[in-house]
Specification:
- The complex is a heterotrimer of chains A (223), B (365) and C (188).
- In chain A, 30% of the residues lie in helices and 33% in strands.
- Chain A is α+β, with helices and mostly antiparallel strands and 223 residues long.
- Chain A contains five helices and nine strands.
- In chain A, strands 2-3-4-5-1-6-9-8-7 form a nine-stranded antiparallel beta sheet.
- Chain B has a single domain, classed as Metallo-beta-lactamase, Chain A (4-Layer Sandwich).
- Chain B is built from eleven helices and 19 strands.
- In chain C, strands 1, 2, 3, 4, 5 and 6 form a six-stranded antiparallel beta sheet that branches.
- With 188 residues, chain C is α+β, with helices and mostly antiparallel strands.
- In chain C, a hairpin with a 6-residue loop joins strand 3 and strand 4.
- The chains are: A alpha+beta (223), B alpha/beta (365), C alpha+beta (188).
- Strand 16 of chain B pairs antiparallel with strand 4 of chain C, so a sheet runs across the interface.
């Protein structure tokens, strides 16, 4: 199974809306008991500014601008705490106007050998189709989208596949990025409550969907 | 052929139980395609409601013929999958323990549900809340159980009547429950933990069945209380609905010592009754060997839904197993096993129960 | 360290969902990172190779590699400092607290079927989480191998769940809902 070759899993929750970045600082989170005091004290703060806030804890990266809120982690044990944190922040800041939420599952795989690495791309996009126009065509990036979604939500599910840009254990690396995107409300801004309920109810689905997509791709390459 | 629909003059009391503490449920055919379901349990692998699965297997029209669903008490192992069942059983009313202050009871349920709805939980509260929502949407009836109350009755034929009657909880238990609800609401603080009802077993609904000429007692998780106005002692001393001894007994509280009273066997049950129980296999195991022996002394028709299995670590990827071992982590799996003890009898004839042990169920002696 | 492609991908969320990968942006950003890294880490072969390398927009790898590597080997590949993948994860609910240990019912998050019972030493609980330890409290437990700044370590992590504190409004909302239900239910 492809997940046996999974080396790095970067999960990020990205929310589009109208934010006041300076509110959500490490000490605010600690004061609300959403993170440990010690985590706030040892946070690596890059910038705290009314336009942008960027800092990291041992397990979490935070970047908030006026219109985009991003929390991410590369440590699987902290994916559920990350979700809890998002839910809690917007349960407290329940009047924040939000427009969309995306759960991004960025997974890096170390493919064990050159043959299977080649096969990975060749099955997805046979380059023989391009040999009439290109002498030596290569695949840079493959993206598949389903929009509108087939469930009750507005939004899309996208998968992007490209060569790994992170140094992995083995040289034949592939990144698969699944973006599970939900539009919130209609054209107007909607309350944070809708996002909180959506994230709570769709969390398991989103994790499973990203796994399913990865395994389906692999099953085509290794039937 | 056990997996078939009983005829209209054949009564059925089937205990569906699991080996691990994954719960138990009882399906009752009163006759004439009238069914009552007591509690629910779920296959943890498939998340299917086991009583619903059984009813579908034998060909019951669940939507039409299930008339009452009873939640005997607030414990995960009696509730999981109940809303799934109720969703299909469109004709069914919903029965649970009476609370004197119904509004306060709903407030408690609502508060706990609101707390839990944002965390991964398959707790009894969320299941119970879903049941209330389903019943409310349909405007079906809520039947509140208290000692000596008939929860459901059906005239099967001009000569045959079947009834489902509550033996518990007692008035005293309900008064105490009311006080407990108040204090739980008051204590409801900032913590993220779920509300824990103290001693839910005392509030559980033990049931007396009149099925034509036959009588049966379903003990739920009712225990022997130190207060004579509660639990089994109250049933033995004050029940006014038991008109004769029962030939079938669902042993209470997984065969524990707390659920045992010699007077039950002497005063409420015939000699050598068909007796069945669901084991409990979590941090402690029930029934103990001593209790099994004690029950065997009372009857040679003792049945269990599944064997009591020893607790071992869950099988995992070797690399993870190695890490768990190296870190000296002490965990063991509560294994799932399932069994069905089906009991059928002619409503009009004084005949013996026909007992079938299906899937993992076994006869103990 | 965020990757360039992450940044452009995240930007794409702002453009009504159409992801546009700007290749020039990627190459230019990579080049500037290379220059910066060279100055800082010229001798650190963990980050980039110590060889001098050239950065080409189009490369001709010697093997039949199907994907186009954006640059020829040796690549500029961004190093991910710490990550923890493939963990076995549970959510636990505390059932009993003893003098030196506590017991919990554990639900396997990787395989949510049968549950498990665990016994934990109290000293496994991080000091700041001790105030959250109580019967019924929820916690996350993970076991596995983490890569922390290049060092592979076996880890067992307990973290008690932290959620927004209950407010008077939440309380009132739940009671209001209960009151409505009380009026609407068809009582016996």
């Amino acid at each position: 199974m492809l997940k046996n070759y999974l080396q790095i899993y970067n999960l990020s929750i990205v929310i589009i809306g109208d934010f006041n970045p300076v509110i959500i600082q490490p000490f605010w989170l600690a004061h609300k008991k959403l993170i440990r005091e010690q985590e706030a004290q040892t946070a690596n703060v890059e910038i705290i500014h009314q336009e942008v806030v960027r800092y990291s804890l041992d397990w979490l990266n935070v970047e908030i601008t006026k219109d985009k809120f991003t929390l991410s982690s590369k440590q699987e044990p902290f994916f559920e705490p990350l979700k809890d944190l998002v839910i809690s922040i917007f349960s407290i800041l329940s009047e924040t106007p939000l427009r969309a939420i995306g759960l991004n599952h960025l997974k890096y795989f170390s493919i064990p050998d050159k043959t299977r690495h080649y096969q990975f791309g060749n099955v997805l996009a046979p380059l023989s189709n391009f040999k009439d126009s290109f002498e030596d065509p290569r695949l840079l990036n493959l993206e598949i989208i389903e929009q509108p979604r087939k469930d009750i939500f507005n939004g899309s599910i996208r998968t992007r596949i490209y060569p790994s840009d992170l140094k992995l254990q083995l040289p034949f690396g592939v990144a698969i990025d699944v973006n599970d995107h939900y539009d919130i409300g209609s054209e107007k801004n909607s309350s944070a409550n809708e996002m909180v309920n959506l994230l709570t109810n769709q969390w398991d689905f989103s994790l499973k969907k990203s796994e399913e997509i990865v395994e389906n791709i692999w099953s085509k390459i290794n039937p | 052929m056990p997996f078939n629909l009983p005829k209209s003059n054949i009564t059925e009391i089937t205990l569906i139980g699991t080996g691990g503490g994954y719960g138990e449920s009882i399906v009752i055919h009163l006759g004439n395609n009238e069914w009552v379901i007591v509690d629910s349990c779920q296959n943890p692998n498939t998340k299917e409601s086991l009583p619903l699965l059984y009813l579908n297997k034998i060909g019951v029209n669940v939507e039409k013929d299930v008339k009452l669903v009873i939640c005997t008490h607030w414990h995960d192992d009696h509730l999981l999958g109940l809303s799934q069942l109720l969703q299909v059983a469109k004709n069914a009313n919903f029965c649970f323990t009476e609370a004197t202050d119904r509004k306060k009871f709903l407030q408690l349920v609502g508060l706990d549900y609101a707390k839990l709805s944002r965390e991964p939980s398959n707790s009894s509260t969320t299941e119970f809340s879903k049941c209330l929502e389903i019943i409310n949407e349909r405007h079906n009836r809520i039947v509140l159980a208290i000692e000596n109350k008939t929860l459901f009755g059906a005239d099967i034929s001009p000569n045959i009547r079947s009834e489902v009657i509550a033996l518990s909880p007692s008035d005293q238990t309900i008064l105490n429950f009311n006080a407990e609800i108040s204090s739980l609401i008051t204590e409801f603080g900032e913590s993220r933990k779920k509300i824990i009802i103290r001693t839910p077993n005392e509030k559980s609904i033990a049931i007396f069945l009149k099925l034509g000429v036959h009588r049966a007692i379903l003990g739920s998780d009712l225990e022997v209380s130190s207060d004579p106005n509660e639990g089994w002692t109250n049933v033995l001393d004050n029940s006014i609905v038991i008109d004769r001894k029962s030939s079938l007994f669902k042993i209470s509280h997984h065969g524990s010592e707390n659920g045992y009273h010699l007077r039950i066997w002497n005063e409420l049950l015939e000699d050598n009754p068909v007796s069945k129980l669901t084991p409990w296999n979590k941090n402690n195991r029930l029934p103990t060997a001593e209790m099994l022996q004690l029950y065997s002394n009372h009857t040679d028709k003792l049945y269990m839904t599944a064997p009591i299995v020893s607790l071992k670590p869950k099988k995992r990827d070797k690399s993870i197993e190695k890490i768990i071992t190296s870190l000296n982590c002490k965990i063991h799996e509560v294994k799932y096993a399932q069994g069905i003890i089906q009991c059928r009898n002619d409503l009009q004839a004084n005949t013996e129960w026909v007992v079938e042990t299906l899937e993992g169920a076994l006869k103990v002696n | 360290m965020e990757t360039i492609l992450d940044e452009s991908w995240l930007n794409a969320l702002n453009t009504n969902g159409s992801a546009k990968i700007d290749n020039d942006f990627i190459y230019n950003s990579l080049q500037s990172r290379v220059d910066k890294q060279k100055n800082i880490f010229i001798d650190n072969s963990d980050i980039i190779t110590s060889q001098e390398f050239s950065f080409n927009k189009v490369s001709e790898p010697q093997n039949q590699s199907f994907f186009l590597p954006a640059i020829s080997p040796p690549y500029l590949i961004l190093e991910s400092k710490s990550y923890f993948t493939g963990a076995q994860k549970w959510i636990g609910h505390v059932t009993t607290i003893n003098e030196h240990t506590f017991n919990a019912q554990l639900n396997d998050l990787n395989d949510p079927t049968t549950y498990e019972i665990g016994e934990f030493d109290l000293n496994e609980v991080p000091p700041e989480d001790m105030e959250l330890l109580s019967v019924g409290a929820a916690f996350y437990w993970s076991v596995g191998k983490a890569n922390m700044n290049g060092q592979v370590e076996k880890k067992s992590l307990i973290r008690f769940q932290r959620m927004k504190p209950w407010s008077a409004t939440d309380y009132d909302d739940a009671l209001d809902k209960a009151d409505t239900l009380f009026k609407e239910l068809n009582w016996d």
